[in-house]
Design brief:
This protein is an alpha/beta fold and about 270 residues long. It contains ten helices and eleven strands. α5 crosses α6, α6 packs across α7 and α7 packs parallel to α8. It is elongated, with a radius of gyration of 23 Å.
């Protein structure tokens, strides 16, 4: 989009492709006056988007067959959030909570009921009933269970009352209460199974990293990842002039001439 009005040719790796250090990810051919002004924004787009996508890829690789939801929008400026969450989807996240971010990637947004709704209603089950009545049926009924009562107790209350409509419960226990631990996830899973609700999924969130995903993998079904993706360091990019009027050139320390990469595909 940035170069669409410029008289240039562009080759690129495909979105979602992995790349190595010093590998050429984008090649531009044309008059410098047609693209030079875009050097800084191009590098910023590539650096940050690749970083966010890489973080999502790490989480998805750790999750394997389990789902990863990107919950990172609240950690960044709203003008950045859609780009960040779209990048996470490109990297492998199964869904994103940011509406525009999901739409940019051609997907539907996904999330869960917020703590605010439960706090205002004053009861988790009451809030879940209201959520079920008001929200379109295509959205999954995933309810937080750490707001007022013991997480296992609240999960069973919901399963008994919401029953077949309850797709999952979400554990987001704050650090002040010890956070989401493996023992807690195990207990909730076992109590749901014993009560006859093995199909109720467990969503874990709150400081989730690839390491925690691997730790919880056998007992949780969905992972909500926020700051690990949104706060991931951008991957350093540089733009080099390698040829001028058919003559090979380069700054000191770099090899003159076009660097070959057969994986590049012409996109413009």
């Amino acid at each position: 989009s940035l170069l669409s009005q410029s008289q240039v040719e562009v080759w690129s790796l495909q979105e979602g492709d992995s790349f190595d250090a010093r590998e050429v990810v984008l090649r531009i051919k044309g008059p410098y006056s047609e693209f030079g002004v875009f050097e800084t924004p191009l590098l910023g787009i590539l650096a940050h988007s690749s970083g966010w996508a890489t973080a999502a890829r790490e989480c998805k690789e750790a999750a394997r067959d389990k789902k990863v939801l990107c919950f990172g929008a609240r950690h960044v400026h709203p003008s950045v959030a859609p780009v960040m969450e779209r990048s996470a989807l490109i990297g492998g996240a199964d869904s994103a909570a940011c509406i525009l971010g999901a739409k940019l990637a051609g997907k539907n947004p996904g999330g869960t009921i917020p703590h605010a709704a439960i706090l205002i209603c004053g009861d988790t089950v009451l809030s879940a009933k209201a959520f079920d009545e008001c929200i379109p049926s295509e959205f999954p009924r995933i309810i937080l269970v750490d707001t007022f009562k013991d997480e296992a107790e609240e999960s069973l209350r919901l399963a008994q009352i919401i029953n077949q409509k309850l797709e999952g419960i979400r554990l987001d226990t704050p650090e002040e209460r010890g956070g989401v631990t493996l023992s807690l996830v195990k207990e909730v899973r076992e109590r749901l199974n014993q009560a006859g609700y093995p199909k109720v999924k467990i969503v874990v969130s709150g400081g989730i990293t690839p390491e925690k995903i691997r730790l919880f993998h056998d007992y949780a079904d969905i992972f909500g990842v926020g700051s690990y993706i949104s706060g991931y360091s951008p991957i350093d990019m540089t733009m080099d002039i390698k040829e001028v009027a058919g003559q090979k050139v380069a700054k000191r320390g770099r090899i003159p001439g076009m660097t070959n990469n057969p994986r590049l595909v012409k996109i413009l």
